[in-house]
Amino acid sequence: MRFLQAYPKEIRVFLIASLINATGSALMWPLVTMYVFDELGRSMKDAGIVLLVQSLGGIAGQLLGGSLYHKVGVQRLIVGALALNALALFSLPAASGNWHLFIAAMGLVGLFNSLSLPAIQGFVGFRFAERRGELFNVIYVANNIGVALGTSLSGFLGNYMLSFILNGVTSAVFAIFFLFYLRKVGTSAPQDQAAKKATQPGPSGWRLMGNTRIYLYMSIASMFLLIGNSIWNTGVSPYIISEGWPKQTYGFLWTLNGILIFAAQPVVSLIKRWFAATATSQMTASAVFYLSGYAVILLMPSYAGLFLAMLLATLGEMLISPATPAFISDHAGRSAPFYLGLSGGIGAVGRVIGPYLMGIQFDRGGLAPTGWLACGMAVLSVGFFLIHAYVNRSPRALERSAA
């Protein structure tokens, strides 16, 4: 973690806390499907229902979190959401005895976990305005290190309930951290003008939704990307099994993903320097990399092809993940938390419907139809990101939208 030394203590503490929370979250999410199928004795269809309800709760949390930022206040929203998420996680052992209660509890986990996301992103954007683009990328890297650690530990623990409870513990610890952290930075550190404006009431949600150039086109583009990205779980995964390859080969693809997110930062820096200097160009370049990866899956249905496809898709992921919150934070002013939640909610629709659409395609003809669908979604994503870049090409247009 030597790279953290380049940041002030206030940022370093925040990044370490984020990494711990991401590690705790990753203890649970790889095990949900296995828990429903193995421990509860339900079908894979039932496991899909659980994930669907959790995803729908996540969409609602994103939308609600963004709209409540100014009404509730950043401290109460973040701390309250994380504390409620911890309670929902702690309730899972008791809820497991009743199928419907378990589904409801998983929906609440999705809701409360996502409720804090736009608030945290909004806080970072306001608090560290001068370095927020860089910081969003560092947070993304730190969170993915946490995900890699958490997924590894989840397999080592081998206990479903222990993993769920530890996730609740890390969420509770993160809530306590924010309780004291926000009190400290709010009293001992001066706030800039953007942060002060963030505490004032803003326009109504309906009025903000009318400024479509800020969020709509990039949110639709992100939704298409997430539909296409479902190929990994609902196309590549069953393809590996049907080909009789060792199941570990699928895990190796995600190991590559985790390594690249940390090790390929210099490559992404070069990409940004050479032809993707702005956030809008980074989004478009991201979709092009995803499209290239899906095309490789379609044209090279071998393990070497899947390996290359994951490399290209990961570069796309590394470009878009920090770019979207940075763009909104830079251009939406005090309404940034609302747009962060709204864009995250719209984009997450792709994560809900993507597995279903990909599953239909795989049942019809295996990997090839899923590859065509993923490529089509990526083409649409490129188109909508280009529209987003076009309508936001003028600084004056952005100022009118943020007003």
Q: What are its keywords?
A:
about 400 residues, mainly alpha, Growth Hormone, Chain: A, 2 domains
Structural features, described:
It is built from 20 helices and no strands. Mean pLDDT is 82; it is low at 187-199 and 397-403. Helix 1 (9-28) runs parallel beside helix 8, helix 3 runs parallel beside helix 6 and helix 12 runs parallel beside helix 18. With 403 residues, the chain is mostly helical.
CATH domain fold name of the largest domain: Growth Hormone, Chain: A
How many discrete structural domains? 2
Shape: globular
Largest sheet: none
Number of helices: 20
Helix content: over 70%
Strand percentage lies at under 5%
E-strand count: 0
Sheet/helix structural class? mainly alpha
**CATH level-4 homologous superfamily of the largest domain:** MFS general substrate transporter like domains
**CATH level-two architecture of the largest domain:** Up-down Bundle
Q: Could you give the order of the helices and strands? A: HHHHHHHHHHHHHHHHHHHH
State the CATH class of the largest domain.
Mainly Alpha
The stretches of 5 or more residues where confidence is low (pLDDT under 50) are 187-199, 397-403
- Cα distance, first to last residue? 40 Å
Radius of gyration: 21 Å
Mean pLDDT: 82
